[in-house]
């Protein structure tokens, strides 16, 4: 069964540099060292990102605006906007961020590098109707992050309105076959499976 959690109900942890806050939405609790972490960050001003050695980072913009990420030595530069696929970079990279259109909200998935075969994670942008099927084959966590517009979610014969400002989540033990339908032309949503 899908559960909804408003971002305002998740503790906001201020960045050490005072330029933003992070809300940890979920993290792996099945290993001594977490294998993954999912968070939402409010970037209030231009600021450097903290380095996370040994992690792979994927980031996407929730809502409107723009976020420019630049590796400190100039090795790469990438601009995130609404309707952008997630951008992946190494946690070791020293990254400078700028918010040319004002404060923005970013969705972050961090995966710890390990020496053995890793489970495949999904981090996908959706703008059209899609479905989630319970195959019952593996244990997974499912997360839905509406970014723009409005969606209707039908799961177990029940309809829910899905809008920005919250995360919807469930596990493979409780997920029912689910269909999500955009209700506005510019609706977008990020689906994450860990």
From TrEMBL:
Tree of life domain: Bacteria
Coiled-coil regions listed in the entry: none
InterPro entries for this protein: RmlC-like_jellyroll, RmlC_Cupin_sf, Uncharacterised_HutD/Ves
PANTHER family registered for this protein in UniProt: PROTEIN VES
Name assigned to this protein: Environmental stress-induced protein Ves
Species in which this protein is naturally found: Acetobacter lovaniensis
Lineage of producing organism: Bacteria, Pseudomonadati, Pseudomonadota, Alphaproteobacteria, Acetobacterales
């Amino acid at each position: 069964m899908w559960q909804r959690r408003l971002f305002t109900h998740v503790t906001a942890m201020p960045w050490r540099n005072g330029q933003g806050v992070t809300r940890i939405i979920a993290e792996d609790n099945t290993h001594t060292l977490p294998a993954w972490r999912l968070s939402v960050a409010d970037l209030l001003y231009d600021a450097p990102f903290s380095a996370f050695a040994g992690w792979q980072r994927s980031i996407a913009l929730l809502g409107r605006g723009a976020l420019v990420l630049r590796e400190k030595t100039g090795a790469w530069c990438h601009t995130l906007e609404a309707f952008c696929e997630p951008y992946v970079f190494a946690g070791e990279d020293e990254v400078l961020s700028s918010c040319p259109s004002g404060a923005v909200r970013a969705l972050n998935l961090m995966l710890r590098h390990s020496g053995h075969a890793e489970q495949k994670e999904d981090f996908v942008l959706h703008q059209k109707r899609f479905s989630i099927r319970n195959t019952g084959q593996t244990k997974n966590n499912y997360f839905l992050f509406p970014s723009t517009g409005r969606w209707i979610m039908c799961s177990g014969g029940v309809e829910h309105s899905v809008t920005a400002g919250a995360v919807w989540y469930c596990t493979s033990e409780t997920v029912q076959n689910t269909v999500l339908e955009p209700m506005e032309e510019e609706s977008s949503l990020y689906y994450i499976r860990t």
